[in-house]
Design brief:
83 residues, alpha+beta, 3-stranded antiparallel beta sheet, 3 helices, 3 strands, 18% strand
Length: 83
């Protein structure tokens, strides 16, 4: 599941997905900047809900992006049943 993604005219250039939040290796170059790395889905959803705008700003700045769009996954936008 993709939690957050950034697109340019060339398509998706960065995202945070299971490759990041379910990771067992130490290295990460994800849009989350390592915030979700290896933390599991529940923690990644919480982090992304709270910090999506900051993640996008930092990623876009680091990549020097001027024209882009970001998408936050539906699961991130929805609150859990018991939250």
């Amino acid at each position: 599941m993709t939690l957050i993604a950034v697109y340019t005219s060339e398509g998706c250039i960065g995202r945070c997905d299971a490759k990041c939040y379910a990771a067992t290796e130490a290295h990460c170059e994800c849009i989350c900047g390592g915030m979700n790395h290896g933390g599991g889905l529940t923690q990644a959803l919480d982090n992304t809900r709270l910090h999506a705008e900051v993640m996008i700003e930092k990623y876009a700045g680091a990549k020097g992006l001027q024209a882009f769009r970001a998408e936050v996954g539906e699961e991130v936008q929805q609150l859990g049943l018991f939250e």
